[in-house]
Amino acid sequence: MAASGCRGVRSILWKYGSCAKNLYVSRSKMVPQLPLRQISVASSLWKKNLAAAGPQKFTQEFIDKQLEEFEVGKRHLANMMGEDPETFTQEDIDRSIAYLFPSGLFEKRARPVMKHPEEIFPKQTAIQWDAEGRPFHFLFYTGKQSYYSLLHDVYEKILAIERHQDKMRNKGLFASDTKQILLTGSRWLLKEEIEENLVENISDQDYLRLIQLMEKLLSMPYCSLEEEFILKFRKQLEVQSSKYQIPALQYDPQGVAFSVADGRRKTAKASITLRDSGSGNITINGRNYLHYFPVLQNREQLMFPLLFVGMMGRFDIEGSVEGSGHSAQAGALRLAISRALLSFVSEGEVEKMRQAGLLTADPRIRERKKPGQEGARKKFTWKKR
Amino acid sequence: MCSGNMAAGVLSGVRQVLRGPRLLSAVFSCHGQTFSSAAAAVKSAPDTAVTEKILNFPLTQPDYFHLSELFTMKDLFEARVHLGHKKGCRHRLMEPYLFGSRLDTDIIDLEQTAELLQQALNFTAHVAYRGGIILFVSRRRQFGHLIETTARECGEYAHTRYWKGGLLTNAPIQYSPGVRLPDLIIFFSTLNNVFQQHVGIRDAAKMNIPTVGIVDSNCNPSLIAYPVPGNDDTPVAMEMYCRLFKMTINRAKDKRRQMELLKGISASV
Known about the structure:
- The complex is a heterodimer of chains A (385) and B (269).
- Chain A is α+β, with helices and mostly antiparallel strands and 385 residues long.
- Chain A has a six-stranded mixed sheet with strand order 5-6-7-10-8-9.
- Helices cover 40% and strands 13% of the residues of chain A.
- Chain A contains 13 helices and ten strands.
- Chain A has helices at residues 2-15, 50-53, 60-81, 90-100, 117-120, 145-171, 191-198, 204-219, 227-231, 289-292, 296-309, 326-341, 347-356, and strands at 20-25, 37-42, 186-188, 234-236, 250-251, 257-265, 268-275, 282-284, 287-288, 316-322.
- In chain A, a hairpin with a 2-residue loop joins strand 6 and strand 7.
- Chain B is built from ten helices and eight strands.
- Chain B has one domain: Glucose-6-phosphate isomerase like protein, domain 1 (Rossmann fold), CATH 3.40.50.
- Helices cover 45% and strands 12% of the residues of chain B.
- Classes of the chains: A alpha+beta (385), B alpha/beta (269).
- At the A-B interface, helix 6 of A face helix 7 and strand 5 of B.
């Protein structure tokens, strides 16, 4: 009876089967003293919830052991390669490993590597409490201690300035036209830069809140008391025009100044020599520009840099250009003329030229044709059926 | 219900743990995992009679830290602690603590407040004496800075910001595996910015952490271990509470340091 019951159960489990594994430990007939034991274990219990575990954490002792092994292994490697263990550097290690374990894998990070444990194991934040378990920072239990402590400090400064204001008012020395902090030419630090400073992640709303608090601090009349603190959160913007490399002004044997510059557009490459005290002649590839560029638009492109700085009849231009089509060649020549002009023009004019777009290389190139389409963008005729 | 007995009852587990760590799970059985508790704070000292005496002797006295001299009922009145909200905001469970109402404004019974505040301060002092972690919580933006400054000055912790869901209940994942949770949470205002009960009260009750709370006439005092009926809206009242708690905690810590020094002297002698 027990046997049939068992078989019945087993058949049911066979039907609804794969989710649970059942082990039947011996039958009462064969070994009378062992009881019938049924162990039912669902396989879902065996699977580790890998997502919930988070990034793997290593204990300090584990990392210390790895460090020891690395040092010892380094000396062994040096001996193997027949070199001096004392002066075995990281480059030597890399070279030796590449020699002993040659790998044809394309992914560099998949190749065998022997590096200092600091570089392999990710840095973990240090323990933030002392031996008794008491955290060091008084805002530890908020979760974002550095960010909230920063807000606390900024508010503290606002209160201090308000108290100062009240004192001045009481003395009758209050003046609303006090020294203001110069903010032109700087911007607030970005969210990423603040995260870097605080060594903590903050959300967008947190960042906006911080900027609002700083603006409030700035709106007070006596904010110059905390100028140094505020400037820590502002980053100076670099002057863009100082980044350009001005071609050197060279002199002819006759004493005439000239400068040489290059320009590119699509596949066209151009090189220009700009000579001073000329009369506005333009020669390209040995021919007059009227012959080389019959189209008006291209000649206008050549003229524009000179027109912009107002030095139309002053220079003689000698240029060579190759590649691409007529418009691209005109564009390349224009860029080359603008660059050459930089050495004849003042700082303010350079900034104006930059803002006019004369010094920016046009990055547009021909887009490739894709398979399954007629061209770069054009698709084949769409048929509904 | 004498406060000394209550303190002894709640902290008796501490003494048991000094004897054997296996009892930790039995006493704090509601903890899902073994967090290091207040007991861990004093685990380093050898189990001598002197340490026992230092820890247990204050529990035998009703007012070991002489906290009754810190405030009088007149001080509470002058700090406007008796002023509650209007009749319409009254919480049903606060009715026992109210003296009455005048022109629709509820007046809190200062006799009860004085007694309950005394008990709360006494409990806080004992927790601070035993090296427990105290967390000040409030969600009132008016007094957030004041409370954070108070916490910093007495060497304890504050949380006057947005309360993230699992701070107490999901602590090993929110912070780090070996984190120690607060041993006492003091609520300077039990409501959050939308006039609902602060999540921390429920979470502290779940994690078996005792709470002290300043309950106004629109708050629910049920889950709080040491409710102190009083005004939580006036700056004068809040400054008074902050001052009182700061003085209690500093007194208790100074007393502990004194006892440790005496123990050191007597041990060397």
